[in-house]
UniProtKB/TrEMBL annotation:
Uppermost EC category: lyase
Domain of life: Eukaryota
Biological process according to GO: D-xylose metabolic process
Family affiliation: Belongs to the NAD(P)-dependent epimerase/dehydratase family. UDP-glucuronic acid decarboxylase subfamily.
The protein's name in its UniProt record: UDP-glucuronate decarboxylase
Any Pfam family hit: GDP_Man_Dehyd
Region Disordered, annotated ranges: 1-30
UniProt xrefs under Gene3D superfamilies: NAD(P)-binding Rossmann-like Domain
Swiss-Prot/TrEMBL keywords: Cytoplasm, Decarboxylase, Golgi apparatus, Lyase, Membrane, NAD, Signal-anchor, Transmembrane, Transmembrane helix
Subcellular location: Cytoplasm; Golgi apparatus, Golgi stack membrane
Length: 416
């Protein structure tokens, strides 16, 4: 016979001690950041020379787009547990009731925009949301949470400038907005191959719905046809019946639709072609090179390479990508623009970099290469440099350090 022991006092005492300990830490953190705000150590208005002349990156964004944000402020968002206490002994999570928000810019009404971000709870989308919120805009996120996570934007829930709506872009959505960042689509192979038909519908029908919304409200819309070309003038070489086809062909059709709406209905569009991106909030199980290698190294496992490891990739840090997206949205340019880091690594070189940075006891093991795996992928970013004044600033090694810290925090908090 099982016996239930009423240990309420003991349990409450433990919870209270845990809460008090966490509250003390939260108070120390809030005091630290309050002091920085009061003393002006977080600067918001600066010029290009101040940002780009630093040996160490202290801020992200571009003054021309009014998107400059202190890097330390962003780190506080994604490297700190905000509303939870994880007890590794009991494997329980307690949620804090009190909520404070980081300071956002106060914009005059004529400058404040209402901005819709589809897929805004995902990896890239959530970083874009952080930046737009800190810039002082009103942000509406729609996400069906297939790959996105509420935790990625949970620190903004309840803020007067923020709305989060569970919605699938395959279905029509009506709202009044000034700009639309259309980022909704699973981008990692395990996710987009899980339901290929759904992936195609998201790329095609989701894009039609967002372009239709932009046409109705006369909003600017940014589209996200990722990765298939190397230069903007390259048309791609895609296997229409291979395992990647649901993703690659869906993106090509989305780009066709975008320009059809621009030419026929005068919709104000922007198109970015995004190359491999990494950083905090990547899904630990998304099957991408960076997250796979970091998680394997943190767990002390061998790093898995598919094929001989001589296939090349270029990796850009997520803050650089967000800079480019905001610059593109606010530029008067209609042609596609590549956003990526032209520095090229073989997969084997990248695995060795992770091992040296995270866990030198790990080894490399090889498995057969997947079908249609690209041999080379490197962007030509001359157009972005000329039109936007944009180029990646984050060294890959520094970005890896930030990403490793994020995954370590997630492991410590019991979130992965």
């Amino acid at each position: 016979m099982s016996t239930i022991v009423n240990d309420t006092d003991s349990t409450e005492s433990k919870c209270n001690n845990l809460m008090n300990s966490n509250n003390d830490k939260s108070k120390e953190t809030e005091d630290l950041y309050s002091d920085k705000i009061r003393d002006g150590q977080w600067f918001w208005n600066t010029n290009t020379e101040q940002i780009f002349s630093q040996d160490t990156i202290v801020a992200v964004g571009h003054p021309s787009a009014k998107s400059v944000v202190p890097l330390e402020l962003l780190r506080y968002i994604y490297l700190q547990p905000h509303d939870r206490i994880y007890d590794p002994k009991t494997h329980t999570i307690s949620y804090l009731q009190t909520r404070t928000y980081l300071p956002v810019k106060s914009l005059p009404p004529r400058e404040k925009k209402r901005i819709l971000v589809t897929g805004g709870a995902g990896f890239v989308g959530s970083h874009l949301v952080d930046r737009l919120m800190l810039m002082g805009h009103e942000v509406i996120v729609i996400d069906n949470f297939f790959t996105g996570r509420k935790n990625n934007v949970g620190h903004w829930i309840g803020h007067p400038n923020f709305e989060l709506i569970r919605h699938d872009v395959v279905d029509p959505f009506l709202i009044e907005v000034d700009q639309i960042y259309h980022l909704a689509c699973p981008a990692s192979p395990p996710h987009y191959q899980y339901n290929p038909i759904k992936t195609v519908k998201t790329s095609v029908m989701g894009t039609i719905n967002m372009l239709g919304l932009a046409k109705r409200v006369k909003a600017q819309v940014y589209g996200d046809p990722e990765e298939h070309p190397q230069a903007e003038t390259y048309w791609g070489n895609v296997n229409p019946i291979g395992p990647r086809a649901c993703y690659d062909e869906g993106k090509r059709v989305a780009e066709t639709l975008t320009y059809a709406y621009m030419n026929q209905d005068c919709v104000d569009v922007r198109v970015a072609r995004i190359f491999n991106t990494f950083g905090p909030r990547m899904n630990a199980n998304d099957g991408r090179v960076v997250s796979n290698f970091i998680m394997q190294a943190l767990k002390g496992e061998d790093l898995t390479i598919y094929g001989d490891g001589l296939q090349t990739r270029s990796f850009q840090y997520v803050h650089d990508l967000v800079d480019g997206l905001i610059l593109l949205m606010n530029a008067d340019y209609k042609e596609p623009i590549n956003l990526g880091n032209p520095d090229e690594y073989t997969i084997r070189e990248f695995a060795e970099l992770i091992i040296n940075e995270v866990n030198t006891s790990c080894k490399i093991k090889t498995l057969p290469a997947p079908k249609d795996d690209p041999k080379k992928r490197r962007p030509d970013i001359r157009r972005a440099e000329q039109i936007l004044g944009w180029k990646p600033r984050w060294p890959v090694k520094q970005g890896i350090g930030e990403t490793v810290k994020y995954f370590q925090r997630q492991l410590e908090a019991g979130l992965i």
